[in-house]
Amino acid sequence: QVQLVESGGGLVQPGGSLRLSCEASGSIDNAMAFDMNWYRQAPGKQREKVAGITPGGYTNYADTVKGRFAVSRDNAKKTVYLQMSRLTSEDTAVYYCNIRKLTGYRVDYWGQGTQVTVSS
Q1: pLDDT tens digit string along 42-82?
Q2: How far apart are CA 90 and CA 38, in angstroms?
Q3: Which DSSP string corresponds to 48-106?
Q4: What is the DSSP letter of 32?
Q5: What is the DSSP string of 34-47?
Q6: 3 pairs with which residues across the strands?
Q7: I need a labelling partner for 76 at 20 to 30 A (CA). Which of 22, 31, 43, 104 fits?
Q8: In whole angstroms, what is the distance from residue 88 CA to residue 113 CA?
Q9: Which of 57, 71, 85 is nearest to 21 (CA)?
Q10: pLDDT, tens digit, 9 for 90 and up, residues 32-42
Q11: Cα(8)–Cα(105) distance, rounded to whole angstroms?
């Protein structure tokens, strides 16, 4: 019913930038009912939340990415973005898009993930 498709991942050199996007489709009728978030998971490590944004545009970030990453959203397009700058090898991970319903059942939807590799 709901599908999230990420794009924009790839190989980037240290200090470089990437912009991830995640578009929702299917039965979601109102993007304003959802928080939109980005998580990441590196091999052998636990999944961690990177950034989040509320329907009204309030943002939050993990301490490790503050000042380097910027999350934004387009409710009409049902899309969330993650602009990543000054990337380091510690940012290498699979990045997952997540949307979380704010009312009623607190259901979560997840994208399939997109690989970001930071290497020289």
Answers
A1: 999 999 999 999 999 999 999 999 999 999 999 999 999 99
A2: 16
A3: EEEEEE-TT--EEE-TTTTTTEEEEEETTTTEEEEEE-S--GGG-EEEEEEEEE-SSS-
A4: G
A5: EEEEEEEE-TTS--
A6: 25
A7: 104
A8: 19
A9: 71
A10: 999 999 999 99
A11: 31
